[in-house]
Design goal:
Elements: E1 2-5, H1 13-26, E2 35-45, E3 50-58, E4 62-70, E5 79-80, H2 89-107, H3 115-120
């Protein structure tokens, strides 16, 4: 779970809670053919709107995503985002980190996939 905010150090708790609920509503079954059952969520309290990105690894190297949005004054009213957007530059900083961690720990690890190391790798910083 990642939090980005244009207003404070972290997204509001209402948005984080709604983001986790949105993720639970769209994430596929944890384990199935071609799926690790691993992903990440970004709650973004942006300057103009609230956004949630729910991402998961499908197959060996695909990232799948569902995006949600809500008005700033109603962060808990997330709905599927009616756009083809894949994220803003701030959200994509997190996605890029996750991509690199997936490559390092799962796809190109000489000792084989290390899911625990991937899960322990977290982006921390200012975007």
């Amino acid at each position: 779970m990642y939090s980005i905010s244009a207003h404070s150090a972290a997204a509001r708790q209402d948005l984080i809670t709604a983001s986790l609920q949105a993720a639970a509503s769209v994430l596929p079954a944890p384990r199935a053919e071609g799926r690790y059952g691993i992903g990440f969520v970004i709650a973004h309290d942006a300057a103009d709107y609230c956004f949630t990105l729910v991402d998961w690894w499908q197959g060996e190297n695909e990232i799948h995503q569902q995006m949600f949005s809500a008005p700033l004054d109603e962060p808990s009213s997330l709905r599927h985002h009616a756009s083809q957007a894949i994220g803003c530059v701030w959200e994509l900083a997190v996605t890029d980190f996750e991509r690199r961690a997936w490559l390092t720990h799962v796809l190109t690890n000489p000792q084989g996939p290390d899911v625990a190391a991937y899960l322990n790798a977290n982006f921390e910083g200012t975007v």
